[in-house]
Amino acid sequence: MKYLVTGCAGFIGWKVSEFLLMDGHTVIGVDNLNASYDVAIKKWRLSQLQVLPDFHFHCIDICNYSDLESVFDVSFAGVINLAARAGVRQSVKTPWVYIDTNITGTLNLLELCRVSDIKKFVLASTSSLYGSKNPLPFSEDADTNHPLSPYAASKKGAESLCHSFHHLYDIDITIFRFFTVYGPAGRPDMSAFRFVQWISEGKPVIVYGDGKQSSRDYTYVDDIAKGVIAGLNPLGYEVINLGSDSPIVLIETIRTIEELVGKKAMLSHHPFHPADVQATWANIQKAHRLLGWSPVTTYRQGITNLVKWYQDHRDWLKDIPTG
Which of 3, 130, 151, 218 is catalytic? Predict the structure, then answer.
């Protein structure tokens, strides 16, 4: 089949595209290669896809309706929208680009699905929607009306648009709320990459709080990608968590990376940022029930893979800005 994957040079979009191509599908990849973080990593991911057959890349911003329209094909079996402005703290500084990409971009794609009679749409959303007041583990029916950041608010808006288009035009829509995705070629502004680089290069390791008060439900990128692809089946309208269901305390992440790298971290403690959620933990029963999906990569193995990838490409990764 033929799929449109937006954000194909992004962390999750790259891996979803790779798995679809390996399964024999055709992928039309769209990405604007913006500078939200160092584009060298995006170009590296893209280079891994461009050697595979049946991958076709277009450098397009999903905020530009007419450019998007030029690549839309009525034969698409589905549209997978993984293009996004992500990152909590950066959204506080520049909220406008988050609204443009995450809301207007999603609207453009939904409207083109309607016009082209494409009946399957997948949206990348975020665990940041759960905020700070919901009980752990987070379930999909929890209150998401109190976002702590413009990033979370923009994803709430995108989810709402999806519901409207499902209701009005019967588009089959699956929304995935991702929980702290990590692995080789991950985003350099995320903690896993930052900790590996900072410890490897002897840089101060920034820790918000004492490192014991916050935890993250780290989920390996390959597991996330397989969940997204499982969500291409007809489901109606569903919001589904993809997480590991095994949160890791931040200081334990640092200790594991210290062991794998063979160096001690130089900790630099900072106060918590008010836009951050202190803990994430996914209830993944719905993903298991509807998709038959469960994560298979252990945290230890995933971090080991990330450290090895960093060491293999250290000559250029050591200088990547971590935001």
Answer: 151
Burial class (CB in 10 A: 0-12, 13-18, 19+), 111: middle
Asked if the bond preceding 137 is cis, omega within 30° of 0, the reply is yes
Q: pLDDT tens across 8-67, in order?
A: 999 999 999 999 999 999 999 999 999 999 999 999 999 999 999 999 999 999 999 999
Count of C-beta atoms within a 10 Å radius of residue 291: 23
CA quadruple 319, 219, 118, 166: dihedral, nearest 10: -120
- Alpha-carbon distances of 239 from 9, 90, 98, 263, rounded to whole Å: 24, 25, 21, 41
DSSP string, 198-230: HHHTT-EEEEETTSSS-EE--EEHHHHHHHHHH
Q: Is 220 a catalytic residue?
A: no
242, containing H or E segment = strand 237-242
Reduce the DSSP state of residue 56 to 3 states and report it: strand
Q: What is the reported pTM? A: 0.97
List 267's β-bridge partners, or say none.
205
Give the tokens for residue 15. Answer: 């891996």
Among 129, 220, 144, 216, residue whose Cα is nearest residue 182: 220
How many CB atoms are located within 10 Å of the residue 142 CB? 17
